[in-house]
Design goal:
This protein is of the alpha+beta class. The protein contains 2 helices and 7 strands. A 4-stranded antiparallel beta sheet has the order 1-2-3-4, with helices on one face. The chain has a 3-stranded antiparallel beta sheet with strand order 5-7-6, covered by helices on one side. The mean pLDDT is 86.
Length: 128
């Protein structure tokens, strides 16, 4: 993952951890670094590569806080958490018209792996 001094640091605070059959889902609220703002939420499906419409990582930044680096910072944190969980790769699915997410995924080293059954772009990121 490239070093970056041009993103907004965030703090992820775990909201809950869920298990559906053999799938673990960890949900987080995304806060500004000083914890004064909740800027969005994200999740990590953390025990296997997900080459489907959900991927392993998902995030949503509230519209008024977009284009400030929060999504990039949250994804960087989720990749670190995935590595701690022993994952060697993750998948992220995004709409074909979501250029902002594509830029974040490409920045993080994502490689286009194909399309999902729902027509979303599916990206793979290797965790080093």
């Amino acid at each position: 993952m490239p070093p970056d001094n041009h993103y907004s640091p965030v703090r992820l605070i775990q909201k809950d951890a869920l298990r559906f059959q053999d799938v673990e889902v960890f949900r987080y609220d995304i806060f500004s670094e000083d914890l004064s703002l909740t800027v969005g939420y994200c999740y990590l499906i953390g025990n296997s590569p997900r080459q489907d419409d959900t991927g392993n990582i998902g995030y949503c930044i509230d519209e008024k806080y977009r284009r400030r680096g929060y999504g990039k910072s949250a994804c960087r944190s989720l990749l670190k958490l995935a590595g701690i969980r022993g994952m060697s790769e993750v998948y992220i699915a995004c709409r074909t018209d979501n250029r902002a997410s594509e830029r974040i995924i490409e920045y993080l080293g994502g490689v286009l792996a194909g399309n999902t059954d729902a027509g979303l772009l599916l990206w793979r990121i290797d965790i080093i």
